[in-house]
Each structure stands twice: as C-alpha cells, then as structure tokens.
Amino acid sequence: MYESHFIAIMCGLIFGGEPEVTHGYSVGYDIHRIRVDCEIEAHVIEAGRDTRSSLDSIQQALFAAQLTGKTPMVVLIDTDGREGAIEFRVRTVAEMLGVDYRVFTQEALVRTMLGS
Hints:
By secondary structure, the chain is of the alpha/beta class.
C-alpha cells in the first residue's frame, strides 16, 4: 500500500475526517495553495511514514493551523515497530512546540480498514 492509502484509512476510519483538503493563501499578488493530509473539526493533521520526508510535517501542520484556526497534529505511520531517528526527531520537536503527536503502525491501520 502507498502512504496515501494509509493516510486515507487514518483520516476516514480513525478520525472521521476529510483527506486531502486544499486551502488557498496569498502572498503579494500571487495565490498559493496547500493541501492538508486530513482535516477534522478541531484539527489539521499532517501524516507520513517514518521516513526522512516526514521531517517537514511539523512545519506543514503549524502553517495549516495558522491558515485554518485549527489545532495542528502530526501522525507518523510506523513501518518497523520501533521509534527510530526520524520518529524521535519529530516527536521531540512536537513536544517542544505543543503539537499533538500520534503514531499508528501500518498493521493497525490495515486491521482498521478490514474491520478486525
């Protein structure tokens, strides 16, 4: 499964939210857009696997929160059953900034999808 599949499972089945929500913002004369991985009533959620590409999740969640007035959250999808360097870095910064942080294993997300 691709990361986007895990995000859709997490967003829809666990949080009851809407995946891939787009928000516009302007800088000078230009209009730009960001896409939030998952949006629920009170939170904007950035999610990703426990890989280097998830290091920018905190920044994305904070920026989306600023645009929407919602609370930022970061979710990492654990692929190997342990907290590695990436998870440690993201968790540490999330704790420092008071950003909600959660971890789900790939297996748990698949079980959720299958209803077991």
